[in-house]
Amino acid sequence: MTTSPEIAITAEHLSKCYQIYDRPQDRLKEAILPRLQRIVGRTPARYARAFWALHDVSFTVARGEALGIIGRNGSGKSTLLQMLCGTLTPASGSVQVNGRVAALLELGSGFNPELTGRENVYLNASVLGLTRAQIDARYDAIAAFAGIGQFIDQPVKTYSSGMVVRLAFAVSVSVEPDVLIVDEALAVGDMAFQQQCLQRLTDLREAGTTIVLVTHDILMTRNYCDRVVYLEQGRVKAIGDPETVGEMYIKDTLPSAEMSAAVEWKRDDTAKLRFGSSRGVITRSRLLGGSGETSVASRGETLTVVLAARIDRDVRNPELVVQLRDLRGYVLYGLATSPGDLRIVHHAEGADIEAVIEVDAHLGPGEYSFSLGLVDRHGETVSTVLDKVVAALPFTMLPGGPSRFHGPVDLRGRWR
């Protein structure tokens, strides 16, 4: 396999199969009986069934790119990461990772529980390729990042899971790897430590480190990943931008009460991705600025979203929903209608509904969009998704001249 210098990871047609035995004795039978059956001319019996943890998975990751991997439990995420790290051999296919790799796969993996935290720092850092002198130079920074105090001189077997992952993460990022692979480790630890880790990931990515991050946190993939791989039952269901792939995952994991029928993603005439039941559809949407329909806005300009939808007669409590999202799909603001906000025209098939929302675009420069939704509300927290259109109305915010605020949203703060 040959790869471009700009490619950090290349995975081609990766597959991994395990033999599953229903009973312990079946494993012994599989090892002995088929050979005897061949000798006597009988067709060998099978005492195991094949389970494909991964099947034909292919993708590439560019140098300096942050790739998220999402999927339900058992979808093959951890198996894939172990192949990327070289700790698991694929049944077929190939993988190539260029550069020094640091991995944080399981809590305490690679730690000797009988050794102290300090001793494990030196052991793990040396395995990752650092010399004794390099570890000496970085030890204080590692200990400070881990923040476990005097416990660093206690055996690791006395640590909590949060303390273990603090120390493991501190060691992994201290070696300044070319490729950093993290499997759900950031789910452990308090909020302050998670923010500290995420800031370190940002710093590493800006310095050119390639990051592969497995998580169930869709907001994390939207904030820290350039692309996302969505695995389902060991296969790649989708690869793409965090917003679109994240919405696919959210849709697939919605409780059955929120979907009246099994639906698939579809593209409409404008190539927008959408999903929903068959009992309602958004029929029209427009984004208006001060001078009419627009896809460009200036800071402080009033933007108007005009929505129309058609619903079946059995939809009792329709709501239209508008969400303002940034380029990665992070929801900055959302608002649903109340019954008084809707104009409803009943007819034989059901009803046509319309609504208009106005927002003042106090935003930083960049790319944004309005995602649109139509739901049937059943209570405070339960609703059926009738139609959802991702990034239906994209627009660009122009720079608004000198300003002291930073971030995507201007909350119009005032000093006094």
Structure characterization notes:
The chain has 416 residues and is of the alpha+beta class. The chain is built from eight helices and 21 strands. It starts with 6 loop residues before the first strand and ends in a 19-residue tail after the last strand. Residues 257-264 have low confidence and may be disordered.
Profile the largest sheet.
7 strands, mixed
| Distance from first to last alpha carbon | 63 Å
- The radius of gyration over CA amounts to 26 Å
Shape: globular
Count of DSSP strands:
21
Derived from helix and strand composition plus strand pairing, the structural class reads: alpha+beta
Proportion of strand residues: 35-45%
Task: Round the mean pLDDT to the nearest integer and report it.
Answer: 85
H-E order: EHEEHEEHHHEHEHEEHEEEEEEEEEEEE
Q: Helical region count?
A: 8
What helical percentage do the residues reach?
Answer: 10-25%
Point out poorly predicted stretches.
257-264
Q: How would you summarize the topology of this molecule?
A:
Layout: E1 7-20, H1 24-39, E2 49-62, E3 66-70, H2 77-85, E4 92-97, E5 101-104, H3 117-127, H4 132-146, H5 161-174, E6 179-183, H6 191-206, E7 210-214, H7 218-224, E8 227-232, E9 235-240, H8 242-252, E10 266-267, E11 273-275, E12 280-289, E13 292-293, E14 296-297, E15 302-312, E16 318-326, E17 331-336, E18 343-346, E19 350-360, E20 366-377, E21 383-397
Parallel strand pairs: 3-7, 3-8, 5-6, 6-7, 14-21
Antiparallel strand pairs: 1-2, 1-4, 8-9, 10-11, 11-21, 12-13, 12-15, 15-19, 16-17, 16-20, 18-19, 20-21
Helix pairs in contact: 3-4, 3-5, 4-5, 7-8
